[in-house]
Amino acid sequence: MSTTTPDCTKRRRRSTRSLRARPSGSDIEWTRAPEFSALPVAPPLLEIGNLSPAPLPVPASAMLVVPRMTHQSPLGRQEKSPVALPPEATSKKPYFGPNEMAQPNVLRAPGHAPSGFAIYVHEGRSDYAPNGGVNSPGLVLKAAGAKWRQKSAAEKEIYKAKARERSKDHAKIVAEWRASLHPDQIMEENRLRRLSNYLYGDKHQRQQRVIEIDRPRRPPSGFVIFTNQLREKHFHEHKHVVHYLKWASGEWWKLSEEEREHYRNITRQCVADYQKAIRQYQEQRMRYRVEAGLRGELMPYQLK
């Protein structure tokens, strides 16, 4: 006597479609279950791409649209998802992500020193736009770039010399700015810059870390000490720093093991001094924080 195994897979698949089995004689007839259209189904509040239903109509006076981070829509476009907030949410601060991570920097560092081409664009406008008809920034830079490429090396050197003078003045301004900062301010600024680089590093220029003036510096390696000794005599022989480092690397491996060990011993001594100095620096900062906390003072990173 043969027995047939019921197709459970087929029956399970049909059961997920809200089907109901009704016996009819020896066979089983499958009929669709009635749909309960009386139950209201609320559409989602957010509209993702162009495939979801439209959001619920909300009066303009009862909602506050806050820009959010862009997302990848199903169609491959970068779109923004508006979110409806209650009327009591009157904050004008934009929403950047979880816990409002993207905060403005607490410090405003001096800008970069201008290059020779930037000085030419600023001072030599009569050279590349004599009639004054160029007003668009893009057209201005395009016209200035065409004239700049036609200039000789001697003519470019005039503007490059001005750029070097500006760079020296800018270095003094940056040094004064860094000397006026508190270590806790620098720590908070570096935290915000790391966060900004993590969130928007692929779209914007990455921000460098602010260097603490009083913090002890990590000592260089033996190879770096060796290359610094050769820099004054042989750096001008190479067009780029990469070419110089390749040449210095070859000279490093030409040294004997005893000569390389001499530079490594210098590094080991510097590392021991650095570890001692960094411990004293951290203890000094911690002591300052404890004393300020006992006095009831707020640290710069705690000020809002």
Automatic annotation (TrEMBL):
Pfam family name, one: HMG_box
Region of interest: Disordered: 1-28, 71-97
SMART domains recorded: HMG (SM00398)
Domain HMG box: 110-178, 216-282
Keyword Nucleus: yes
GO molecular function term, any single one: DNA binding
This protein's UniProt keywords: DNA-binding, Nucleus
Location of this chain's protein in the cell: Nucleus
Coiled-coil boundaries: none
InterPro entries hit by this protein: HMG_box_dom, HMG_box_dom_sf, HMGB_plant
Predominant place of localization: nucleus
Keyword Transferase: no
Bias (Basic residues): 10-20
Gene Ontology cellular-component terms listed: nucleus
Segments of the chain annotated as binding DNA: 110-178, 216-282
PANTHER family xref list: DNA-BINDING PROTEIN MNB1B, HIGH MOBILITY GROUP B PROTEIN 4-RELATED
Name of this chain's protein: HMG box domain-containing protein
Organism annotation: Thamnocephalis sphaerospora
